[in-house]
Design a protein that fits this description.
Rossmann fold; six-stranded mixed sheet; 7 helices
Length: 206
């Protein structure tokens, strides 16, 4: 018999001040908002019964702040992996979404149509994010087989990971696969990843 599958819970960091302003963060950082910190405290209570073996997270500040709030209650081992960082948005980082839509409308439309190859000027592609994210999760599954691991990362990381596992393409105007502020469970069994349960709300225990 093979080892038990490793289960990962993918959770986005708490809301940040830049999220409120609709600013693109990417490789930049912004502190959590008061509401974001409160949501993290709520997640800590909701997810406590799951008995996570450890937390694996992006090493960016907003993810670290989220982990600190969660783990102030759980006290489980934590580690940080730069491969779980948000997609680098290059020259568009720090700009608001309305600004990009207004001042770079034609360029944005052309780039979005590239799907997995989308990137902001000077940034990285969604495909590159997917590759490094799966590398990080694959290494974690090998290192901690059979464990239940909470992964605190970013929307771009979660989206590319789950779109890949569900065979989704990045088609403009398509119904979103993911809902805001949700937990997503995936498993890795003998090196193969599969989705388990997506879009678990904060008021439900997985």
């Amino acid at each position: 018999m093979g080892a038990e599958p490793t289960t990962f819970g993918l959770l986005r960091h708490g809301q940040t001040e830049w999220n409120l302003l609709k600013k693109i963060q990417g490789s930049a950082n912004s502190p959590l908002s008061p509401a974001g910190r409160e949501h993290c405290r709520q997640w800590a209570k909701v997810l406590a019964p799951c008995r996570w073996a450890r937390i694996l997270a992006s090493d960016q500040g907003r993810a670290r702040e989220t982990v600190a709030i969660l783990n102030s209650q759980w006290r489980v081992p934590e580690s940080f992996d730069p491969r779980l960082r948000e997609q680098d948005w290059g020259e568009w980082e720090g700009l608001t979404i309305p600004t990009i839509e207004k001042e770079f409308a034609e360029q944005l439309q052309t780039r979005v149509a590239l799907g997995w190859q989308f990137s902001a000027p000077g940034g990285e592609t969604r495909l590159a994010v997917r590759e490094r994210a799966f590398a990080a999760l694959g290494d974690a599954a090998s290192r901690w087989p059979g464990e239940k691991i909470l992964v605190v990362c970013h929307q771009g990381v979660i989206k590319t990971t789950l779109y890949s596992l569900t065979g989704r393409e990045f088609i403009p105007g398509a119904d979103p696969l993911l809902h805001h502020d949700r937990l997503h469970l995936i498993a890795c069994d003998n090196g193969q990843f599969r989705p388990v349960t997506l879009n678990i709300p904060r008021n439900a225990t997985p």
